[in-house]
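Structure tokens please, single chain.
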Amino acid sequence: MARPKFHESAEIFPLMDQLSLRALANDIEENGLKMPVELLDGKIIDGRNRLMACELAGIEPDFVDVDLRGASPTGYVLSVNLHRRHL
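Here you go.
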């Protein structure tokens, strides 16, 4: 599978710096990928850092299609990210 493009709404949050991304890759190598990378219309709406960490670790990520049930893509990204990030 070719690397999916990032959904425009996913880009409202910054990507991890290289040190943090390497730490995530190390964790995925040790413990496995706990949450799949989420796709909306074939684009990554959540999990850009997980995907890049899997690439660094040489691990094939899991993907899942999401159904927003009428919600906006931006609203979805905000909802799933604001509660797990320390911004």
